[in-house]
Amino acid sequence: MAKGSPALAGKDDSSLWIWLGWALVIVLADQFTKTLIVGYYRLGDATYVAPFFNIVRAHNTGAAFSFLAAAGGWQRWLFTGIGLGATVFIVWQLRAHPGQKLFGFALSSILGGAIGNVIDRLVHGYVVDFLDVHWAGWHFPAFNIADAAITLGAACMVLDEVRRVGKSPR
């Protein structure tokens, strides 16, 4: 059988559980921090933390950088569906490549972030954002733990691919 074939995919289920555990840690941290924000802040409230950073309560009905935020409500279900589809695909990839540590870390980080934001969309109808990075009057769009995990995962996925290409024979 070929390496990575479905028959071998479940051979190292311990790695799968480690990656799913990491995704769960992200979901729990994300939902815990969002629960605190929803409980203690009203929409638009902000707390100064440093000259470049605030805690703020913001709602995002769209995707990254508020993409489609004003689309009228249907985007909630589109982004929920994309998140659920990504979840199935990522778990499949984690099972197919259990020994690839950086790839597994990247995918499980994206998985945890995607699930965290899907929970928000299902519970609230929007994603709760609260991390506000700014400088000299310019504000990066507010984000949350799930968004940070997705970004970290995407960066690690690029790094993994660069490393893989660098190792391939020319």
Protein model, in words:
The chain has 170 residues and is α+β, with helices and mostly antiparallel strands. The chain has one domain. Helix content is 59%, strand content 14%. The protein has five helices and four strands. The protein is globular and about 50 Å long. The N terminus is likely disordered.
Short description:
By secondary structure, the chain is of the alpha+beta class. The protein has helices at residues 6-9, 13-40, 74-96, 101-123, 145-167; strands at residues 46-50, 53-60, 127-135, 138-139.
Question: Which terms summarize this structure?
Answer:
4 strands, 5 helices, four-stranded antiparallel sheet, about 170 residues, globular, single chain, alpha+beta
The major beta sheet can be summarized as: 4 strands, antiparallel
Note the beta-strand portion: 5-15%
Summed over residues and divided by their number, the pLDDT gives a mean of 85
Q: Report how far the terminal alpha carbons are from each other.
A: 26 Å
Helix content: 55-70%
Number of extended strands: 4
Rg on CA atoms, Å: 18 Å
Structural class: alpha+beta
Please trace the helix and strand order, writing H or E for each element.
Answer: HHEEHHEEH
